[in-house]
Amino acid sequence: MDVPCCVRVLCPCRRVHVEHQPAQSGYRFGLTAQTAPNAQSMKPSIQGKVERKAAQVAEKVQSRLQNPQPGVLTKLIFTVMRRMQRGKNADYNPKDRDHWRDRGWTAGARPWKG
Predict the structure, then answer these.
(1) CB 58 within 8 A of CB 81
(2) For the chain, does the N or the C end have fewer beta carbons within 10 angstroms?
């Protein structure tokens, strides 16, 4: 299902700008009663609803960017690779092994935990 409008945060001034274009990410919201070609020609009440909802979506995007949570598959692959770097045969690629050790990933640190 394609949503007729999407929201993009265009400037760092903390103002939310609404544009009429198809959604390009996984963040959408269900205000599909919008039929105006741009934000200026909307009714003020609808424009207020859209801006509030856009602010909520922007907060959600920002919090997910600041606190990344890897999926199960990412954690599984990382664990397998970590065990390969800790094993007896880790000397076959010394640059890779040193990279993992310098970051502390073989000792217990994780890249997604900062």
Answers:
(1) no
(2) N
φ, ψ dihedrals at 83, nearest 5°: -65, -35
Residue 1 resides in a domain: no
Q: Return the number of other C-beta atoms located less than 10 Å from residue 5's C-beta.
A: 22
**Under 8 Å CB-to-CB from 2, ≥6 apart: which residues?**
22, 23
User: What six digits make up the tokens of 112?
Assistant: 């997604």
43 occurs within a structural domain: yes
Secondary structure of residue 22 in the 3-state scheme: coil
Residue 42 near residue 23, CB atoms below 8 Å: no
Residue range 50-86, pLDDT digits in tens: 888 888 888 888 888 887 788 899 999 999 999 989 8
pTM recorded for the entire structure = 0.50
Same domain, 55 and 77: no
